[in-house]
Specification:
heterotrimer, A mainly alpha (146), B alpha+beta (253), C alpha/beta (571), A: mainly alpha, 3 helical TM bundles of succinate and fumarate reductases, 2 domains, B: 253 residues, alpha+beta, Fumarate Reductase Iron-sulfur Protein, Chain B, domain 2, five-stranded mixed β-sheet, two-stranded antiparallel sheet
């Protein structure tokens, strides 16, 4: 979105009968809330991209033996990593909340005889599942179960 | 009565290389909509300003414009909601024909491409059996009507195309209003063309180009919620595609 | 200049035009049909009809009743053969519209629901909440897209009918986008351009309703009929004139005066036991009488009465009248769930129009008309609410049917001579574009026209003010020829289009004024204070107005009577 609209956005399949000016975004597009939200949403992709590298590094460390793993764990205590993880957490929550909010209305009104439950219930169920999985993972990582 | 500066985008292909801005000082009445200010300029100050409008009651869909950077139906938008400088531009993402008038041909092409009409498996003459014997109408419950009613409320004002970030980047994207229209017919209990339209929706630049930014639904003046339609259509498209893998064509009904 | 050849040319893309296009395309799949409209079809003013479309649907209803209601509503000026045909075709046409996807509201059993309407003795108005016009227009437009033999000319303004040997053989149309003229030839031409409510300042009509088709036919020598009858809808929003549908009363709403009384109970115009469901002419008169008796309310935009829906409850308003709620909220800041809506009578519809027969044919071979542009006449001196949408369908289809038969049997016109006519027209309009030497601006003349029409041709009319209106419109016809235009650009020159529309409006207004002054009686919507009663002995005929350089030349045409003998119109 870092510029004017695509010069052929909404262009007719055959050229117009008079010269038309190419599509524009409004001059204030960068300050519009709706566009900011969209850019932020898409920008979270960069964070997932970066954290994938971190994941690969950790797997490598795991394969390289206990010393490498301990060193990797030690390096994660660096404040930059902590900040990055916090940012990731915020991004995930932002995307999840946004997605959860939009998810119920994307359900088809009916699938054969079956109807989806009311929007708020779907919405609630998403959170229940999310928190449930998080709790389960936490329990596994903390060694409480398995 | 309050004076406002109305800034209008001007573009005359015979004279202007590219769009420019022109300022007008307009004495505005409190009850005015944004459209009233543009009409006042046209009638009393500068007759060369070109814009489209007709019904002035938010149903014909002619008068969509960008007002301070937001796509708005100008006959429905109170002028008093804005400060003393109001920037009125043609709808974003559309080629500009002149001043506030944008090119609709691209939109009309997309609109037609979703086959926005009732498709029946049988020809009309053979189809008589599906009709109510005395009244010649299809039966439809209020619930069946409710399934698609919201998506049939689109006035084709095209604000959603101006708000859509995907349209801005991807010129061939079918876009919110057209997909919502196709989906409206898919959900209509009288229609049997969902498979055909889902085939269209599997094409490039259709439903799966949508990143669910939801901006179309935010700006829709009629609460059609095209974002919901597109994302429901994704589901139907996948199901029909999957059915097509398992069953031979025509056997899916 | 481009020359396009088609079998049928339809001018106007609203309800009647689209229905005609579909009928022609279905009837002859090899024929080529041009649909020429000055706006994209979905912008046509059919879109803003709210209440519903009439056709018998219930077991307690029959053709006889619908016919009688319509004849009586017309104050016996409607042609009874046409009304008979209309009520017979109506259910079939609305059923087709349902088959084509119009989302009609439904009964419990899944059949199409009907609601009560003014002047109708039973529930026969099919509806889609309160947006029937919108849904009908979009259903027709979308359905029309499946016919590849319908060629659309969107945003082309037709300014002249091309006539050769007394037969209409095409149109000269200005492509608004390029500013260039085209010759669009057809073996038959159908006018479906709607009415001309914009000659009045306070109207429900959109800005595109400038009487174009009427003026086109009139200038080509085809007479206009019954132009004095202008319908005032009882309930428009003060200030904007935005329509608040009669369905509000059909669903149980009340009109109240400043004392809070349901004053219509006193007047007793209602059908059955519902005082509010009288015909529009009578209800409008009652409102004016209340206001004149000092029982109106005054507001920023003049005197008004109140439309009370508060007793209907939020659920019913949301399910049956959501658009009314939206309009009241946005345009007058009132939520009808809690507060009555201020309303006053507003110009809504022209009963008159291009004189046609029962098939939509005018007296000029090859020229047809349907919808509000035409005067068949089923509406006579007063149209019943919800008959007009059905009229668009019934007579749009009829006109297309007969136009197609006519086209099949007629030879093509002489292209060179028709093209020469179009070139002459292009030259005339070219001279008008950016004509700075002229005297007055469009907005000045339009304002004067509006004021003259409002002063002379209101709900109640008087000889003296009508006489003044005749003088004013005749004088404006001279002045409109000397407009001053600023915009020299060819591309999307809306000023030029507005100027051409204004010329049409002045022409139509003059016919209206002269016809009204001529009718010295009170019938339907034409209520003359000097002659307060209906006079069947002298005036039971249609007024015919022919073009003449000196001003409209009036004539008479017999009303087709039938089984319903004129009687006192009492509800």
């Amino acid at each position: 979105m870092a510029g004017p609209a695509h010069p052929e956005a909404m262009a007719p399949p055959t050229p117009g009968r008079t010269r038309a000016a190419p599509p524009q975004m409004p001059s204030t597009w960068w300050s519009a809330k709706r566009i900011r939200t969209y850019i932020l949403f898409d920008a979270t992709g960069i964070i997932y991209f970066l954290i994938a590298f971190l994941g690969i590094r950790l797997i490598n460390a795991l394969g390289a033996g206990p010393e490498a793993w301990d060193a990797a764990m030690e390096s994660l205590k660096n404040p930059i990593y902590i900040a990055f993880h916090l940012l990731t957490l915020v991004s995930v929550i932002f995307v999840a909340v946004r997605f959860f909010r939009l998810f119920p209305k994307a359900q088809p009104p009916a699938m054969g005889p079956m109807k989806p439950p009311p929007g708020p219930i779907i919405h609630g169920m998403l959170y229940v599942v999310w928190f449930g999985i998080t709790a389960f993972m936490t329990a596994v990582l903390a060694g409480v179960i398995l | 009565m309050v004076e406002k500066t109305i800034i209008i985008t001007r573009f005359d292909p015979d004279r202007d290389e590219k769009p420019r801005k022109q300022e007008y000082t307009v004495p505005c009445e409190d009850s005015w909509k944004v459209l009233d200010a543009v009409n006042f300029i046209k009638d009393e100050i500068d007759a060369t300003v070109s814009h489209r409008w007709s019904c002035r009651m938010a149903v014909c869909g002619s008068c969509g414009m960008m007002v301070n950077g937001e796509p708005k139906l100008t006959c429905k938008t109170a002028l008093s909601d804005y400060d003393d400088r109001v920037d009125i531009e043609p709808l974003a993402n559309f080629p500009i024909v002149r001043d506030l008038v944008v090119e609709l041909d691209g939109f009309m092409h997309k609109f037609e491409s979703v086959k926005p009409w009732i498709i029946r498996a049988k020809e009309q003459a053979e189809d008589k059996a599906s009709l109510h014997p005395e009244k010649d109408t299809f039966g439809q419950s209020t619930e069946e009507l409710g399934n698609f009613k919201q998506f049939s409320m689109c006035i084709n004002c095209m604000l959603c195309y101006s708000a859509c970030p995907v349209v801005a980047n991807e010129p061939d994207f079918l876009g919110p209003a057209a997909i919502a229209l196709g989906h409206r017919y898919n959900l209509d209990s009288r229609d049997e063309g969902a498979e055909e339209r889902h085939d269209i929706f599997r094409g490039e630049g259709t439903v799966f180009s949508c990143s669910y930014a939801n901006e179309c639904s935010e700006v829709c003046p009629k609460n059609v919620d095209p974002a919901a339609a597109i994302n429901q259509a994704k589901f139907g498209t996948v199901i029909d595609w999957a059915k097509g893998l398992v069953l031979p064509r025509g056997g899916t009904k | 200049m481009d020359v396009f050849r088609h079998d049928i040319v339809i001018v106007g893309g609203g309800g009647a035009g689209l229905r005609a296009a579909i009928e022609a395309a279905e009837k002859n799949p090899t024929a080529s049909i041009a649909l020429v409209s000055k706006v994209y079809p979905m912008r046509s003013h059919t879109v803003s009809a709210e209440g519903g479309a009439a056709a018998i649907a219930r077991d307690d209803d029959n053709l006889e009743l619908h016919g009688y209601d319509t004849v009586k509503g017309s104050d016996f000026l409607g042609d009874q053969d046409c009304i008979q045909y209309f009520v017979e075709q109506a259910p079939k046409e609305l059923a087709l519209l349902e088959n084509w996807g119009c989302p009609f509201s439904r009964n419990e059993d899944g059949t199409v629901a009907t609601r009560a309407f003014g002047g109708m003795t039973t529930k026969r108005t099919w509806y889609a909440a309160d947006k029937i016009g919108f849904h009908m227009l979009h259903a027709l437009f979308q359905h029309s897209m499946r016919f590849k033999n319908i060629v659309r000319y969107d945003e082309y303004f037709v300014s002249k009918l091309l006539v050769e040997d007394g037969a209409c053989r095409g149109v000269a149309a200005l492509d608004i986008r390029t500013g260039e003229y085209s010759t669009i030839l057809g073996r038959a031409v159908i006018l479906t351009t709607g009415g001309g409510g914009k000659i009045f300042p306070f109207t429900t009509n959109g800005t595109i309703k400038t009487g174009d088709g009427m003026a086109l036919a009139y200038r080509a020598g085809v007479p206009l009929k019954d132009m004095e009858f202008v319908q005032y809808h009882p309930t428009g929003l003060p200030g904007t004139g935005i329509l608040i549908t009669e369905a509000t009363r059909g669903e149980g709403g009340y009109l109240r005066n400043s004392e809070g009384d349901r004053f219509l109970v006193e007047y007793d115009y209602g059908v059955g036991n519902k005082a509010e469901l009288g015909p529009r002419d009578m209800i409008s008169r009652a409102i004016v009488q209340e206001i004149e008796a000092g029982r109106g309310l005054s507001g920023a935009y003049g005197d008004h009465v109140l439309l009370d829906l508060t007793h209907l409850g939020e659920d019913k308003i949301n399910s049956r009248l959501p658009f009314v709620r939206e309009l009241a909220n946005v345009y007058i800041g009132v939520d009808p769930v809690t507060t009555p809506i201020p309303v006053r009578p507003v110009v809504h519809y022209m009963m008159g129009g291009v004189d046609t027969d029962i098939h939509g044919a005018t007296e000029m071979p090859g020229l047809y008309a349907a919808g509000e542009t035409a005067c068949v006449s089923i509406n006579g001196a007063n149209r019943l609410g919800s008959n007009s949408l059905t009229e668009c369908l019934v007579f749009g289809a009829a006109a297309a049917n007969h136009a197609m038969d006519y086209a099949n049997g007629s030879a093509e016109g002489n292209e060179a001579s028709l093209r020469a006519q179009a070139e002459e027209e292009a030259g005339r309009v070219e001279n008008l574009r950016g004509r700075k030497k002229g005297g007055e601006r469009i907005s000045e003349i339009r304002r004067e026209l509006n004021l003259a029409m409002e002063a002379g041709f209101g709900v109640y009319r008087e000889q003296a003010s009508m006489q003044a209106g005749v003088g004013a419109t005749a004088q404006l016809r001279g002045r409109v020829a000397d407009l001053r235009l600023e915009d020299e650009s060819k591309v999307f020159n809306t000023e030029l289009i507005t100027a051409l529309e204004l010329m049409n409006m002045v022409e139509v207004a003059e016919v209206l004024a002269v016809s009204a002054l001529h009718r010295k009686e009170s019938r339907g919507a034409h209520t003359c204070k000097d002659f307060p009663t209906r006079n069947d002995e002298e005036y039971l005929y249609h007024t015919i107005a022919r073009h003449d350089p000196a001003g409209p030349r009036l004539g008479k045409k017999d009303v087709v009577l039938g089984k319903w003998v004129p009687e006192e119109r009492k509800y």
